[in-house]
Known about the structure:
The chain is α+β, with helices and mostly antiparallel strands. It folds into two domains: 2-86 and 166-356, no CATH class; 87-165, no CATH class. It is built from five helices and 18 strands. The strands form five sheets. Strands 7, 12, 13, 15, 16 and 17 form a six-stranded antiparallel beta sheet that branches. A five-stranded mixed beta sheet has the order 2-1-5-4-18. Strand 15 and strand 16 form a beta hairpin. Helix 2 packs antiparallel against helix 4.
Amino acid sequence: MVSVTHRIRYPPFESDRLNPSHIPIVEHSFEVEEDAVPPFRLGTEDSWIIERVIDGDYEIDTEYHGKTPHIIEKQRTGWYLIPHPIHAKVRKYINLVVVILLFSLFYLFTTPLQASLGIPTWGTGKVRLGLLDYPLLTVIIVPMMIAPIVLRVLANLGDLRRQRLFLANAPPRPKIDLDDLKSGKNLRGKVEFEETQEDWVGMKVSWRVGILPPARHKVFAALGRDPNGQPPPGLTTPLPHHWEKGLDDGTGMGEDAPMERHDAPGGVFLRPMRIMGKGSSQVLDLDDGGFVLEKPDGDWPGTIYGDLLRVHWELIINIERKKGGPLLWVEPLVVSHPDGSTINEEIIISDGRTESDTL
């Protein structure tokens, strides 16, 4: 028997607001037979880290990938849409409005001081609306604050309409033939569609690898925490109507994706992996369908699924349409492991929001 330890400090939603060193590393040890997937380490000890440690002599098994978790079927397989681009633009606009609002409040606060020094001021006069008088700056700032809310509502209504039309007329799944898949090697394959729709104007294919969130209940168990009690640092209190046991860590609920229909299991928007490496992309010729994609940057282990460590590879077909935005087909991949240990300290942390994902 060989002793294996999985260690993970996974970046929670909006991880840029947190200090990784203040979040505990979750560990889980178990024993396997003499054949085992090679060890690997992604990230560093003082930052985000995903690590597999093996103690003892073992024979390398490059094929094992584990039991496919529920999250793959629900959120990373099949047809998906991309949210309206206005979501990302409005989020940046909100940051600008907050800065303007804070500056305006400071300006109004110092107006008496400016007047006493003889410095001319602007915007402090009053404007009558109905029976009340309002500062002129209020008439300017308040519409700027309300505009993002209105735009997000309109974008959500548009997204719901696109989802309804898509679910009513989803295309058949493509036929995908792939050569043997091994980490560190290029991907070769061929895509065929039984039929294409009239509004399809272009198509490209890409692939990527990433780390999926650990199962929340397993994180609590490994840390010896009560699932109904205070969550550990980095995790939030779950929202029962969003979170499902075993699906993910539960930190992105309500924020990681725009408004979705509840009759589509797992939603129809593809969520980015918060730790992710991207391979090359290639325009797909429908007459031929063949493609060759270069491997993602850096060294990565092959596919492995567990309760804490989930290394996931996927192929993405991005279909450009005349209207309605791009259409995505996502195909999970089972990739063999390298013949030795893997160390990759230069991992890239993604935002976690669906509208921020760039394919």
